[in-house]
Design brief:
The protein is flat, with a radius of gyration of 15 Å. It contains five helices and two strands; from the N terminus they run H-H-E-H-H-E-H. The protein has a two-stranded parallel sheet. By secondary structure, the chain is mainly alpha-helical. Helix 1 packs antiparallel against helix 2 and helix 1 crosses helix 4.
Length: 110
């Protein structure tokens, strides 16, 4: 679940990792699907002014702060799921292709 692993990674970035150990005690998923979208691509899809403060470094959103934070987040997310069964989806692909790949992955796991 994206929220679970993203929360875990953000906890580590913000150094509030007392929750990280508790979260790691929960049951492991059968499969993690990681939508691997480079920060450069994300920036083409969002507006910096609309970012949540937990999506960038610094007191206000900047391209540099966003890129650095997202790269750190990706690195930590990959570390957290490294011991789990996971599949990468290329977030640069158009939405219809991603949807088809996701459908095929989910179909093969049921």
């Amino acid at each position: 679940d994206s929220y679970f692993y993203k929360f875990l990674a953000k906890e580590q970035i913000t150094r509030r990792s007392k929750y990280a150990d508790i979260w790691r005690l929960s049951r492991s998923p059968n499969l993690v699907i990681f939508l691997d979208t480079p920060p450069e691509v994300i920036l083409t899809r969002i507006q910096l002014d609309n970012l949540n403060p937990t999506e960038y470094y610094g007191s206000r959103p900047t391209k540099k702060g966003f890129m650095r934070y997202q790269n750190d987040l990706r690195r930590i997310l990959l570390q957290e799921i490294s011991g789990l069964p996971y599949t990468n989806l290329d977030g640069k692909l158009p939405a219809p292709q991603l949807a088809k790949q996701l459908y095929n992955i989910l179909k093969s796991t049921t």
